[in-house]
Amino acid sequence: MNKYSFSSYVLIGRGDACILILWLHPTFNYFLLYDGSKVKEEGDPTRAGICYFYPEETPLEQQELLCGQLAGVSRCVAELSTSPVRLLRLRRSKFAVRMREQFLWALSSSVDVPDVSICEFLDQLISLFCFYNGPVRQSYQLHSRADLSAHWAKYLSHLQGGSTELHHIFSCLQTIDATKIDPLLLLKAALILQACQRCPLVLAGCILYRGRIVSTQMPPSLTLKVMVHETETYNQEHRPPANERSTFSTGGQSSTMTTPVFLNPSEVQALHSAGELCCFFSTSRSHCSPQPDPRARKSRLLSRTLSDTPFSEQDLTNSSPSASCQTMPCSHRSSLSDESCFSPSPGSSQDSAHFAATHQSEDSSHADSESHDYKLSNGITLSEVNGDSKEAVFGDKEETMIKTIIGSVEEGNSLTNGHHLTLEDEKDQNHEDHERHLHRPVKEERLDVGRRVLGDSPEKMWREENRTCGEEIDSELLPMVLYEHRVRALVLALLVEPQFPTDRTAPEEVYHSSLASLNGLEVHLRTSSSGAPGPPGPYSFAHYDCIQNTLTTNLSGRLPGPQDRSFVRATALLHSHFSHTYSAQEAIIRSAGAAVYGTRSAAQETFFLQHAATARNSGIPNPLDSAFALPNKARHRLLKHGVNLL
Amino acid sequence: MASKSSLLKVILLGDGGVGKSSLMNRYVTNKFDTHLFHTIGVEFLNKDVEVDGHMVTLQIWDTAGQERFRSLRTPFYRGSDCCLLTFSVDDSQSFLNLGNWRKEFIYYADVKEPETFPFVVLGNKLDVTERQVSTEEAQQWCQENGNYSYYETSAKDATNVASAFEEAVRRVLAMEDRAEHLIPTDTVNLHRKPRSNTTCC
Description:
Chain B: It comes from Denticeps clupeoides (denticle herring). Chain A has 646 residues and is α+β, with helices and mostly antiparallel strands. Chain A contains 18 helices and 19 strands.
């Protein structure tokens, strides 16, 4: 296994300059999909079960060895603990594992990658595959292994490429640099999306420029899926044309195409309910049926245009976040104290919808074992993860000398027990939520979603654990269509109902209603993206927005120095630590050369390093230690980046 | 005659809400949408048209009328071949502002000869019954300010929209014809002057 654990240099093009980024870890060592149903008898060769193995050039014997061992170990642990395996840790690498039906997925990376990141990557890979190909079992019945292997390879390279290591740590979305463009252009993008939703067959959309998000109406997980195809087609168009898809109207630089995709019921529900949360007035929820009456939706959506309301300066600043569920890369909205960003956020609404969805399915299938399953699966995962945290944070002797946790930190048993209790409470609350969910008006719902997100972290963790757990990903995927309209480097991507492409008027309506605005937005973005970045300042920071899954940092624009490497490494450790230790709010992690301050809330995580501030580090606790000034410095420095830690 | 197809940039300017976007949409897609948003910055659409045997691709630039969008729209004035000054016949203030729009355009588009630049004036919303600006007033303004063509249009019921844009094309083509006649004589002068100077001394 050591053979593949290497550090590598990757060149990333950014604007005009090419920047050398040092990768402290190999991204993925191994990825495999193993179908246990193909290997039942003693005589069945292991290779019959290997659907996909990365790196593809690995000798077959080695592939078989790894698959056989992993499948065996995972099965054994799962049966002993009566809960699915999430993570297997070895001395030098670790495997994120997913088992579903007879399938086993495993993704391996070095131990430097935070557990939470590698698990997230694996979930993303699987959900990407399902999004574009449908249920896994069915895909392997319909298509050849070779074809599907090409797809896995594509998703793997997409997740590994193009972004900085910080993006990998948070596995977050790439957004355009909002500091370089007029905020009005973000509003313009949001309005284009809103105008498209006037067509009842359009669920939600996003606008991407050069592979980065300008505006999105979708939950982060869905936006990520859509972006894969966008990047792929963008690359295709920059190569000589190879294969034409269902392109139906081409004029100069502008073209549209449609691609079949698959959404899981909770995603569809989230899109429908997000649409309703966008309403200015409360209506009764209609998203319980997966296919709402188009006429009913139309009348509602038509009334949701800004031109119907007086267009004041206040609209400009308020309408986008609250009215249209936009994920705009303006970090200034996601401050600690800004409650408005929580209520109608796509992430939270998705989660709330998801709650209802999981609960429903659980109720119907195996109501008795339900709470038992949850408790066990989470309990096990938690204790596993706890062990990791100690090893990752405390056991690293190379750089970490002292670690100070300022916030309250629960440890060991108390944490585990506490978590169990909260989960029990959570179950009950879920049920109540679900009941209310169906009957109450939207306004109340919004408040409640806000409270949930602000609420205690175990709950959030619980949701994250279950969000992409995948029990229901495969169960009943709903076919949808991804509609893309490209104007040079700008893409309007819409998730539309399956009948959209064959509808008599809808494609033309959407095309014509957005073409002029897209043309305009494209020239605006093309002419405004040339601004030179300001001086980076004597500090590094990374601000992660957990709700929108976006990252703001001043790191990517310059050559990484030794302090930047420490910063990235410390950020990975702190992020990992925060993900295990729910009640920790602030932490400082330091080596002999640098101290990094991290702070988090339910909505964000912020990491800060002051350059050249090691003078007063005496090695023993000292009230004059400059590290203790970090929280204050972070608060002041980051204000001008729109990050409010006050 | 229809030998070359050229791209003509035509820009619509005027107060917010006079119907610039609607005029563009009516002309290019023959649709009228009562639920349009305020335009932010600029937008444009292309349309291939044949005017008097000339094939041209008309690139129609629609701009934001609101003052707060000024910094977004003005960089795109440059390179325009024709400017359509638009007002609404039911809004006298939008008519009074035509002069300001003309000034703003000449300044930001860096027009070298404002006297000869092709402007066309459009009085939109002809379908509205309560007019505030009479045809005579508008025509008088056009005559006094450079003998511009004046069209009364309705994007809602498609009155005169096509003819207004076609007039814009004619104006540009006429300008180009004139320029083609003028250019040769100018260049001859420039090249010959130095030589005549030396013989003189």
